[in-house]
Design brief:
Elements: E1 7-10, H1 16-22, H2 31-40, E2 44-51, E3 54-62, E4 72-79, H3 88-102, E5 108-110
Parallel strand pairs: 4-5
Antiparallel strand pairs: 1-2, 2-3, 3-4
Length: 116
């Protein structure tokens, strides 16, 4: 697996157009705007992997007990097709795990859709 260096940071409102242009997901209108809105509530992080100024992946870390109380939860992990198999997904998971640990979570969960 070829490694690639990306910067990972929480998404901001000013990133929405760039995210929609580069990581568009037609199944959910305003996908990134919704995730940023959830992040602003303070119980999740919408994290973006950036290759220079291009978003190439994303992950959501939920801290709201949506799935299991007192367990951080990873969902909406995705990497742009042309950047898969370069370690970006693993870097996003590692980053999310570090945040969960800093927030004193002892466990972290992950959901995967049956059709995924």
């Amino acid at each position: 697996m070829a490694k690639i260096k990306v910067n990972i940071s929480p998404a901001r409102d000013k990133d929405i157009k760039n995210l929609n242009d580069c990581l568009f997901w037609s199944a959910v209108p305003d996908f990134h705007a919704q995730k940023i809105k959830e992040q602003k509530k303070g119980d999740s992080f919408w994290l973006i992997a950036w290759l220079k100024k291009v978003p190439v992946g994303h992950i959501q870390l939920r801290l709201d007990g949506t799935k299991i109380k007192n367990v951080a939860h990873i969902e909406s992990l995705g990497v742009k097709d042309s950047f898969r198999n370069k370690g970006i997904g693993g870097l996003l998971i590692d980053f999310a795990e570090k945040i969960a640990k800093r927030k004193n979570y002892k466990k972290i969960g992950l959901s995967v859709e049956k059709n995924n």
